[in-house]
Write a structure and sequence with these properties.
Residues 251-265, 526-621 have a biased composition (Acidic residues). Residues 83-464 form the SDA1 N-terminal domain. Pfam families: SDA1_C (PF21638), SDA1_HEAT (PF08158). This protein is mostly helical. Among the domains are: 24-60 and 70-250, Leucine-rich Repeat Variant; 275-307; 325-501 and 697-722, Leucine-rich Repeat Variant (Alpha Horseshoe), CATH 1.25.10. The chain contains 36 helices and no strands. It has helices at residues 9-14, 24-33, 39-61, 66-69, 71-87, 98-108, 115-130, 136-146, 152-168, 175-187, 192-207, 217-225, 232-259, 262-265, 275-283, 287-312, 328-345, 352-369, 374-380, 391-400, 408-422, 429-445, 452-459, 467-483, 518-536, 545-553, 560-581, 586-620, 625-643, 645-668, 681-701, 710-715, 733-743, 753-758, 766-772, 777-800. Helix 25 (518-536) crosses helix 31. It is extended.
C-alpha cells in the first residue's frame, strides 16, 4: 500500500513508522504540532480505516466466526478510530465524513462487535462530540439504543455521557425541548428495554434537578404517564420513583449541606427567645424547677428551629412530579380503575407490593391536589385490617387521602372500620397504638369524623400501662383541646385560656385580604411611635386609657377596698394627666388633687368602718352577708361618683383635648394604605423577625401543639413510621448482638485485680504502705488479747453444743 501512495522507506522512517507498522501515538503528537506536514500519512491511515470497516462489515454480514475470535482485527480498527478522532479538528475538510461513518458503524454493526471494539468506537464518538465535530442530538438516540445491547461497560459509559452532557448545557438552551422529545418518544415505545432506559434517563435528569420545574414539566408528566405503560416493569419503576423522590431529595439536600462550608450552610434564621425566660431557667428556683424550665426552653427552641427550617426551605423540598399533572383527577381515576380491575376479575394481575404502591400514589395525588375520589375510601376498607401485610403503609395512604375538601360522610365508614378493627380490648397493644395514631391524623384533617361518645371512650386509653397506647390517647386529647375541646370531658380540657376553639365547617376556608402577619409590622410601628411620643411629649397618650384597662381587668365580685384604691389611683392618674396636658390650669388641678386626697381619706375611713360592721354581721348571721355586701357596694359606688364628680369632669375635658391632638398626630403619619401598600425587603425581614418573636412567646407559654394549616398537611408526605411511634418491636438475634457489641466498645478488657497490680508501674499506694507498717506494742497486745478471748469463747461454746443423738447409743 505504501508503494501505491508513492512513499519511500526514508519518508516512512521520517514519519515515525517502520515499513511494517505505523506508530500511531508518535504520529498523533507530530500531527498536532505540524498538521500540514503529515497530511499524506493521514490520508493513508484514513484509507486503511475504510478498508478495515468494509472488511469488518463483510465478515459480519457473512457471520464469520473468526471476527469475534481474532482480537487483532478489532484492535487495529479501534486504534485507527481513536487516532482519527483525535486528529479530526486539525483536518476538518479531509475528515468531514468520518463522524457520520463512525456513527453508522456503531449503529449497524454494534451487535457483531466485540465488547472492546464497541467501547473504543463509543469513546471515539464522545471525543468527537467534545471537539465539537458532533452534537448531542446526533448521539442521543444512538446511545439510548446502545444501552439495550447488554454490555454493562458500554451502558455505563453511554448513560453517564448523556447525563453529564445535558447537565452541562445552559438552563435556557433551546435544545432541551428536542432532547426531551427524543427521550419521551422512546419511553412511549412498546419495547420494554428501550422504554426502561429512557425512563431511567428521565428520572436521573429529574433527580439531578436538570429537567426540573415548570420549564420542563413535560418530563414530569411523561414519568407520571409511565404508570400506565403496558410493561409491568416500567409501571413499577415509575411508581417507585414517584414515591421515593422526596426521600432522594432529602438525601441530596443533606449531602449538599455536608459538603458546603460552615458559613454557607448556616441558615440566616435565628431563634428568638426572651432573655427573662433564659435567666429564670438558669438562675431562679430550685434545682428540679430549673431542670423543668430548661427542658421547656429546649423544647421551645427545637420547635421554633424546626418551623424556621421548614419556612426557609425552598419550594423543591415539597416538590413532586405529581405537581405538574395537567389533569390530576383523570390520572387518579385511571390509576384507581387499573387497581380495581385486577381485584374485580379475581386474578391477581398485580402483586400486593405493586397494588400497595398504586394506593400510595393515588393517595399522594389526592392529597396534593385535594381531589374528590370517593370510591378510593371504599376500596381501602378491604385492606384496613390488622392482619394485612404492610397495614401501616395502607393506613398512611388512607391518612394522606384525607383533606378538608372531602365530605366526612364519605370517609366515615373507613374511619369507623379502623376504630372497630384496631381499637378494642382484645386487640394487640401495637394495633391499638397504630389505630389511635391513625385516628388522630384523620381527625386532624377532618375533625367532623369524631363524635363526643367515641372521643370520650378513646380518651380512657390514657391510663393504659403500655407507653405507646397511653401516648396515642394523650396526643388525641391534646389535638381536640386545640380544635374542639367541647367534645372532651371537663377534666380533659385543660386550663381554660383564651377563646374556645371551634372546628371549621365543611368548605370553610381562610382567605387572606392582606399580606400575612402585616399587622405585626403595624403594631411595632405604633409602639415605636408611642415610645417616641413619651420621650418628646406625653400628650400623645390618652388619659382615660389606663382607667379602661384597669376596669376590664378587675372582676365584678371584688371587694370594696379594692374599688376604693382604684378610685384613688384613678384620681391621681387623672390629675397627673391634666397637669401634663395643659399648664394653664395648674391652680385648679391642685385644688382637685386636694379634693381627691380628702375623698380618699374619707373613703378609707368609711371602708374601715364598713369592714368592722361586716365582721360583726358575719359573726351574728352569715346568711345575710351577701345581701349586706351587695347593698354596701351600691352605696359606695354612689358616694364615689359624687366625690369624684369634679375630677372626672376635668379629666373628661382634658381627655377631649388629648384625643384631638392624638387624632391630628395619627393623621400626619402615613398609613400602609396611604403609602400605596407596597412593602420593602426590610419590611418583610422585620415581619419575619416579629413573627419569630411571637412564636417564641407562644412556644414558651403554650402546653400542647399548634394545629398546622391544611395546605401544609396536604403537601407533607405521611410517614408510616410515625404511626408506629413508641412501639417496641421484638429484636432479632443479630440486632441484639449489635447492641451488645456497641455496649462493649468503651469497656476495658477484663483482668483480675492481682494482674492489674502486677502490671502497675511505679511505687506502691498509701494503702499498701499502711499494711507494711509495724504496729505499736499496745496494738499488738490488744490484738493478741482479742484473739485469745475469741478462741476461749469458741472453745467453751463448742463443748456444750448439742450435736445430735448417736445412732448406736
Amino acid at each position: 500500500m505504501s508503494g501505491s501512495l508513492g512513499r519511500t522507506p526514508e519518508s516512512l522512517k521520517a514519519s515515525g513508522r517502520s515499513s511494517e507498522k505505523l506508530s500511531l501515538p508518535i504520529l498523533q503528537g507530530k500531527i498536532k504540532r505540524d498538521p500540514d506536514g503529515y497530511e499524506t500519512e493521514l490520508q493513508l491511515i484514513y484509507k486503511q480505516f475504510k478498508a478495515s470497516v468494509d472488511l469488518f462489515q463483510q465478515q459480519a454480514a457473512l457471520s464469520f466466526s473468526s471476527v469475534g475470535s481474532d482480537p487483532s482485527v478489532a484492535k487495529d480498527l479501534g486504534d485507527r478510530a481513536m487516532f482519527l478522532a483525535h486528529v479530526t479538528p486539525f483536518y476538518p475538510k479531509q475528515l468531514a465524513e468520518f463522524p457520520s461513518q463512525l456513527t453508522d458503524l456503531l449503529r449497524t454493526s454494534c451487535l457483531a462487535m466485540p465488547s472492546g471494539l464497541r467501547n473504543h468506537v463509543a469513546q471515539a464518538l464522545i471525543l468527537l462530540m467534545n471537539r465539537k465535530s458532533l452534537v448531542i442530538e446526533d448521539l442521543l438516540a444512538l446511545f439510548l439504543d446502545v444501552q439495550c445491547i447488554g454490555d454493562r461497560n458500554l451502558r455505563k459509559l453511554a448513560f453517564s455521557h448523556i447525563v453529564q452532557t445535558i447537565r452541562k448545557m445552559s438552563v435556557t438552551d433551546p435544545r432541551h425541548k428536542g432532547l426531551q422529545k427524543i427521550v419521551i418518544s422512546m419511553l412511549e415505545q412498546e419495547d420494554e428495554t428501550k422504554a426502561k432506559r429512557a425512563l431511567v434517563t428521565l428520572c436521573e435528569l429529574l433527580k439531578k434537578k436538570v429537567w426540573l420545574g415548570d420549564r420542563h414539566e413535560r418530563v414530569a408528566i411523561a414519568i407520571c404517564e409511565a404508570c400506565f405503560h403496558a410493561s409491568p416493569r416500567i409501571m413499577v419503576s415509575s411508581l417507585r420513583f414517584l414515591l421515593d423522590y422526596e426521600n432522594i431529595e432529602d438525601e441530596d439536600d443533606s449531602d449538599a449541606s455536608d459538603n458546603d462550608d460552615d458559613e454557607d450552610s448556616k441558615p440566616e434564621n435565628h431563634v428568638v427567645i426572651n432573655r427573662e425566660a433564659v435567666y429564670k431557667a438558669n438562675n431562679k428556683g430550685t434545682s428540679s424547677s430549673k431542670k423543668k424550665k430548661q427542658a421547656k426552653l429546649q423544647r421551645a427552641m427545637k420547635s421554633i428551629k424546626k418551623k424556621q427550617r421548614a419556612s426557609s426551605e425552598s419550594t423543591t423540598s415539597t416538590y413532586s412530579p405529581l405537581n405538574h399533572l395537567n389533569d390530576p383527577q383523570k390520572f387518579a381515576e385511571k390509576l384507581l380503575s387499573r387497581l380495581q380491575t385486577g381485584k374485580s376479575i379475581g386474578k391477581t394481575s398485580e402483586r400486593i407490593e405493586t397494588r400497595l404502591m398504586m394506593m400510595k400514589v393515588i393517595a399522594r395525588t389526592i392529597g396534593l391536589h385535594k381531589l374528590q375520589l370517593l370510591s378510593f375510601y371504599t376500596y381501602l376498607q378491604n385492606y384496613a385490617k390488622p392482619h394485612e401485610k404492610d397495614v401501616t403503609q395502607i393506613l398512611a395512604a388512607a391518612v394522606q387521602a384525607c383533606h378538608d375538601g372531602v365530605p366526612s360522610d364519605a370517609v366515615k365508614p373507613l374511619f369507623m372500620q379502623i376504630v372497630n378493627q384496631f381499637v378494642h380490648d382484645r386487640s394487640r397493644p401495637e394495633a391499638i397504638a397504630v389505630g389511635l395514631n391513625v385516628i388522630r391524623e384523620m381527625c386532624l384533617r377532618i375533625p367532623e369524623l369524631m363524635t363526643e361518645e367515641l372521643l370520650q371512650d378513646l380518651a380512657l386509653y390514657k391510663k393504659e400501662h403500655e407507653k405507646a397506647i397511653s401516648a396515642g390517647a394523650r396526643s388525641l386529647i391534646a389535638l381536640f383541646r386545640e380544635i374542639n375541646p367541647s367534645l372532651l370531658v371537663k377534666k380533659d380540657r385543660g386550663r381554660p385560656g383564651g377563646p374556645v376553639a371551634k372546628p371549621k365547617q365543611f368548605g370553610e376556608a381562610n382567605v387572606f385580604s392582606n399580606v400575612p402577619n402585616v399587622e405585626l409590622l403595624q403594631e411595632s410601628d405604633h409602639e415605636s411611635d408611642s415610645d417616641d411620643g413619651d420621650q418628646d411629649d406625653d400628650d400623645m397618650e390618652l388619659p382615660g386609657s389606663d382607667d379602661v384597662d384597669q376596669e376590664e381587668l378587675v372582676p365584678d365580685d371584688c371587694g370594696n377596698e379594692d374599688e376604693a384604691e382604684e378610685d384613688s389611683d384613678d384620681d391621681t392618674n387623672n390629675t397627673e394627666d391634666d397637669s401634663d396636658v395643659d399648664t394653664s390650669i395648674a391652680g385648679d388641678e391642685e385644688e382637685d388633687m386636694n379634693d381627691s386626697d380628702e375623698a380618699e381619706t374619707d373613703s378609707e375611713n368609711e371602708e374601715m368602718e364598713s369592714e368592722e360592721d361586716d365582721d360583726d354581721d358575719d359573726g351574728e348571721a352569715s346568711d345575710s352577708s351577701a345581701e349586706d355586701s351587695g347593698s354596701k357596694e351600691k352605696a359606695n359606688g354612689k358616694k364615689r361618683k359624687m366625690v369624684d364628680f369634679d375630677a372626672n369632669l376635668l379629666s373628661a375635658d382634658t381627655s377631649l383635648r388629648a384625643l384631638k391632638r392624638f387624632a391630628e398626630a395619627k393623621s400626619e403619619q402615613p398609613s400602609l394604605d396611604e403609602n400605596d401598600g407596597i412593602l420593602s425587603n426590610e419590611d418583610f425581614r422585620k415581619i419575619k423577625d416579629l413573627q419569630a418573636k411571637k412564636e417564641a412567646k407562644l412556644a414558651l407559654a403554650r402546653k400542647g401543639f399548634k394545629v398546622p394549616d391544611s395546605d401544609q398537611l396536604s403537601k407533607k408526605r405521611v410517614n408510616p413510621a410515625k404511626l408506629e411511634a413508641h412501639i417496641r418491636h421484638k429484636l432479632t438475634k443479630e440486632q441484639r448482638m449489635e447492641l451488645v457489641k456497641a455496649g462493649r466498645e468503651d469497656r476495658v478488657k477484663y483482668q483480675s485485680r492481682t494482674a492489674t497490680k502486677q502490671k502497675k508501674v511505679g511505687g506502691s499506694s498509701n494503702k499498701q504502705k499502711e499494711h507494711k507498717k509495724n504496729m505499736p506494742l499496745a496494738a499488738i497486745r490488744s490484738k493478741a488479747g482479742r484473739s485469745k478471748r475469741s478462741k476461749k469463747i469458741k472453745k467453751s461454746s463448742s463443748g456444750t453444743q448439742f450435736r445430735g443423738r448417736k445412732a448406736w447409743k
